[in-house]
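Most newcomers find our protein records easier to grasp once they have seen one. To make this concrete, we reproduce a full record directly below:

…
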Amino acid sequence: MTYCLLLLSVVAVTAAVPVPRVLTRAKWPEREPVVALWVWQCLVATVLLCCLTALALGAAAVFGTVRAQLFAPAPPAVTAAYDLSAASPWTTVLTVLLASGAAWTTAMLGRELVEARRRRTRAREHLRDRAPDLPAGLPEGRGPLLVLEEEYPDAWWMPGSPPQLIVTTGALQRLTDHQLDAVLTHERGHARARHDWLLHLSTALATGFPRVPLFAHFCEQTHRLVELSADDTASRRCGHLTTALALIELNQHRGVLSCASSHRLLGERVDRLLEPPPRLDRRHRALTTAAAALVPFVPLLITFAPGLTALP
């Protein structure tokens, strides 16, 4: 069991510290934001699985009740292969730390979901008072659409029950039909991919563990990559130029082309749409996705290795 815990710790530290720093310096995520999001999620899943399996093994070594329940269906040779009879002091300390981390992670996720629900409730109450009826003649087939009386152009997707796509009267007045279609397609791209859940997860992990490089970079990159992914969804339907012009029109009053750090992502998105980077070929994309999908199985292989070698 000592070797299993050691290997799990090495895999978790490797996935949590050096790999994210290398990934943030890579150029290909800008070309393939969907694949990059998948890679980041696989890294996070790897770290969480390492911690969870290490917690299960440590608890089985420290507490006889847990060991009896966890290894109840296993033959005696499998239980003996894990050498759970004598738990060292550092195993007890590691188990307590992992249990505390699991409880803290659960608390942060619950807090983020509760806060998000509270924000959506307040926003819906605010919109209910400000939104007029849908103007006659607006093209149909755009999904649940709510028009908000506002001079500044804007549009966003509000998840919940029911989900709501919101657009301001300023956007209806300033954007052309094609630009409006690009904006709504962008927001529908967020909704179809359920980016809100991914943002909640990344925010909760970064809030709970701000000093862990993986979780800090995961939150930062997720907020960036979901926008690039939605831009690609809109540009495939409406064209790169139309999507870029719609983005400029929506954010011109915010200084979209300024050099301020808060606006830098908007400028990068416009530049990326006007000069699309070369995309990965299909074979490279498939290999990257397959490799990322296999990474979370590493903790499971490490955990089950003693049991598999003990089987006749």
Q: What stands out?
A: The mean pLDDT is 85.
